[in-house]
Design a protein that fits this description.
This protein is an alpha/beta fold. The protein folds into two domains: 254 residues, 3-Layer(aba) Sandwich (Rossmann fold); 216 residues, 4-Layer Sandwich (L-amino peptidase D-ALA esterase/amidase), CATH 3.60.70. The chain is built from twelve helices and 24 strands. The strands form six sheets. Strands 13, 14, 15, 16, 17, 18, 20 and 23 form an eight-stranded mixed sheet that branches. A six-stranded mixed sheet has the order 6-7-8-3-9-10, sandwiched between helices. Strand 13 and strand 14 form a beta hairpin. The radius of gyration is 30 Å and the shape is elongated. The N and C termini lie far apart (76 Å).
Length: 488
């Protein structure tokens, strides 16, 4: 365990880090963040004894580090500095072998099987075994970085200090290296302290983060505590957005450029839609921020093209997503820039209506049928295999929605759709109770993200009222068209 208390130090008599205190336990990985010049690298140098401390203490397993002889300290603490100056050229093997020096009784005079295993393991873990007999100066900067990490691992110290270990590495080797470091920390109870420029990598791999500002600890805590939007903006003097990682319970930071709005202003109108017996298509000159339950590109993203495709009621496919991708490509759509839905309803009967408010306007597009209507409260009694749905709803907003408003817009639209089904007395054919939807309905909300921010889209907000009215009226009309086409 490393315990740092009241640490002040730097170059000569000028303190760069001031009154820094923290404790790192065995098996824990602590990331140090801060803008350039905040003292990140200096802090590591003072902790390791490379730079003098003016006040405070650094204890390693309860013993002050200045009481360790240098070779003895090296058995407990390994340091990977940010920059490396090579007095002479060594091979990769020779460079990594230097990590075993603290364990030698004389300079390589007592090389053992344990030493050999340590360097072989380190080369394997960092993927530099292939360069074993290559001279260090023949490697790229990223390859050299991996060699020095291997040297630190070969040292087999219980505490490792790393200064930007992923510097010069591509994303694949960043992942491999940090995976290795994290696994070593967990499996061997290593204490890792690492400086990061990349906040997102630090968040993913570190148990806690320490944020420095002008040499002073701004905050220390778990990533979700440290990487708060306003806090990062205050320290780094940059506009950012904080959002969750798609797989890990860790926050990620996105930089928001201060370039102004470079996109061409464009209002989406009914004239942007084309309707045929094959599909309903919307093209936008600029990408729309979108949340949907589509077949292709479901979830959130930015897209220019939107396709609601008609398929036969008996449509069956082992991989409907790939089949839809093939369809879009055959029609000339970019599958990275298009949201694709399917419906068994005749698309020429689509209802497309526009609703205006002081915030801007919305376009509602609905294809609806009730052939497989379901009462969601009774769905647990069914044993049906899901098949192509019949109600697809698009809400296109000429306005700027918050993340919360996107979710509320979907809730408001769903409530309005359900009300339309009740108004038309649509019933679940298996239970004869009022239906709430169909088996595989799809919903899309897309916004131009222009104009005043609309923080909320609940039913009593102005945009919520437009969505509620629009979805209800459009769904009701679409159901009427469906019934008329079916002779119902």
């Amino acid at each position: 365990m490393l315990n740092v208390q009241g640490l002040t130090g730097g170059y000569h008599t000028v303190p760069v880090v001031k009154d820094v205190s923290f404790t790192v336990k065995k098996g824990e990985m602590l990331g140090i963040l801060g803008p350039n010049g905040s003292g990140k690298s200096t802090l590591l140098k003072v902790i390791s004894g490379v730079l003098p401390m003016q006040s405070g203490t650094v204890d390693l397993d309860g013993k002050a580090i200045h009481k360790y002889a240098s070779k003895e300290l090296a058995k407990h603490m390994a340091v990977l500095p940010q920059l490396h100056v090579h007095a002479f050229s060594n091979t990769v093997r020779e460079t990594i072998s230097l990590g075993r020096y603290p364990h030698q009784s004389g300079f390589f005079s007592s090389w053992s099987d344990k030493d050999e295993k340590a360097i072989q393991d380190a080369m394997r873990l960092t993927d530099v075994k292939m360069y074993e007999n290559t001279y260090l100066d023949e490697l790229s900067g990223g390859e050299q970085q991996r060699v020095f990490v291997a040297q630190a691992l070969a040292q087999q110290a219980k505490i490792i200090l790393l200064d930007e270990p992923t510097n010069h590495l591509d994303i694949a080797h960043q992942q491999q290296l940090l995976d290795t470091i994290k696994l070593q920390a967990n499996e061997k109870d290593l204490t890792i302290i690492s400086v990061f420029h990349d906040m997102n990598l630090a968040s993913l791999y570190c148990d806690r983060l320490l944020l420095l500002e002008n040499g002073v600890v701004k905050i220390i805590g778990e990533p979700h505590v440290v990487l708060k939007q306003k806090q990062i903006e205050s320290v780094y003097k940059a506009r950012v957005s904080s959002h969750p990682h798609p797989e890990q319970p860790k926050p990620q930071i996105t930089l928001l450029p201060s370039l102004g709005d470079l996109q061409v202003d464009e209002l989406i109108t009914k004239e942007h839609f084309t309707v045929s017996n094959e599909n309903v298509v919307l093209h936008s000159k600029t990408p729309l921020k979108t949340v949907s339950s589509a077949v292709v590109n479901a979830g959130s993203g930015w897209f220019r093209s939107f396709v609601n495709r008609h398929v036969k009621a008996d449509y069956e496919c082992d991989d409907s997503t790939q089949e839809m991708v093939d369809y879009l490509e055959a029609q000339g759509f970019s599958t990275t820039d298009t949201v694709g839905m399917m419906t068994a309803v005749r698309t020429e009967n689509a209802v497309i209506e526009e609703y205006k408010g002081t915030f801007g306007s919305i376009i509602i597009a609905v294809t609806a049928g009730v052939g497989n209507a379901v009462d969601v409260s009774k769905a647990f009694e069914r044993e049906d295999v899901p098949y192509v749905g019949t109600i697809n709803t698009w809400i296109i907003v000429n306005g700027k929605l918050s993340d919360e408003a996107f979710i509320q817009a979907m809730i408001t639209a769903t409530e309005a759709k359900t009300k339309a089904l009740q108004h038309e007395d649509v019933r679940d054919p298996l239970t004869n109770t009022l239906a709430t939807g169909t088996s595989t309905d799809s919903l899309l909300v897309a916004a131009t993200q222009k104009g005043q921010l609309l923080q909320y889209a609940g039913p009593i907000t102005e945009i919520g009222k437009c969505i509620g009215r629009g979805v209800f009226e459009s769904t009701t009309l679409a159901i009427k068209r469906y019934k008329k086409a079916k002779g119902m």
